[in-house]
Amino acid sequence: HNDINVVLNGPVQSITRMRTRKEQRTEVDWVSKLQHETLYIAHGNWIDFAAHGKRKPIYISMVRDPVERMIHNYYDQRTLNKMVISRSIYAGYPQKTDAWYKQSFEECVRSGSPECRYIQYSVVDAVEDFKRQSLFFCGHNDDCLPFNTPRAVQMAKRRVELEYAVVGTWDHPNITLTVLEKYVPRYFNHARKLYSRRCPFVLSRHSFPRLHRHAVDADVRALVRRNFTHEYDFYYFCKQRLYKQYIALQLEHNLN
């Protein structure tokens, strides 16, 4: 609708928590050569384009409730499709047992499994995952990697404040889409109208299509949540910033 190019596959295909200096340079050089009016969607941390002597792009992103992210990721690794693919395509490699695929998140947490232990300041994890939502915004500095630390989260907040045009949330689509429309109009003009045509019931309920919310006991959620204190601080910071942007737009509209 807005006549833009959408690019999904970049030059660095490995999905790791942090990229090497060489991988960052490869990404920067490649992005810098993309034609104007291109929307590039990538799974990776913030990269300092200025440090590589390149003009920085317009950064936007989304955040989600930290514990919900982990529960979703846990079950996403245990889908029937993942099991079939692993056992057919990678049959020669060590495989997870049927019991692993059937284990619930509650069982994993209550048994103290390394996969479901979220230890503050940890750098090396038993299972490498993406529990550090702040890491995507903090970048590739060594101080960004320790889990749930004040320093990493403060660095991530600073990046959001200085480098990101918009960081939306799954909680409020009307607010997120309104801010995107006004702050990045070339790419998101008419976003609400187009989205409501496709999912009219969604906007009327004031929420994005919910990623499946798995039934997890309240005490387990509370137990895990206690290990994500600083990650929640970052999550709420991003939401507050989004709301401030939205309120500023409403005030501007009223003044006009």
TrEMBL record:
<dbReference type="Pfam" id="PF03567">
    <property type="entry name" value="Sulfotransfer_2"/>
</dbReference>
<keyword id="KW-0333">Golgi apparatus</keyword>
<keyword id="KW-0812">Transmembrane</keyword>
<keyword id="KW-0735">Signal-anchor</keyword>
<keyword id="KW-0472">Membrane</keyword>
<protein>
    <recommendedName>
        <fullName>Heparan sulfate 2-O-sulfotransferase pipe</fullName>
    </recommendedName>
</protein>
<keyword id="KW-1133">Transmembrane helix</keyword>
<dbReference type="InterPro" id="IPR027417">
    <property type="entry name" value="P-loop_NTPase"/>
</dbReference>
<dbReference type="InterPro" id="IPR007734">
    <property type="entry name" value="Heparan_SO4_2-O-STrfase"/>
</dbReference>
<keyword id="KW-0325">Glycoprotein</keyword>
<dbReference type="GO" id="GO:0008146">
    <property type="term" value="F:sulfotransferase activity"/>
</dbReference>
<comment type="similarity">
    <text>Belongs to the sulfotransferase 3 family.</text>
</comment>
<dbReference type="InterPro" id="IPR005331">
    <property type="entry name" value="Sulfotransferase"/>
</dbReference>
<keyword id="KW-0808">Transferase</keyword>
<dbReference type="GO" id="GO:0000139">
    <property type="term" value="C:Golgi membrane"/>
</dbReference>
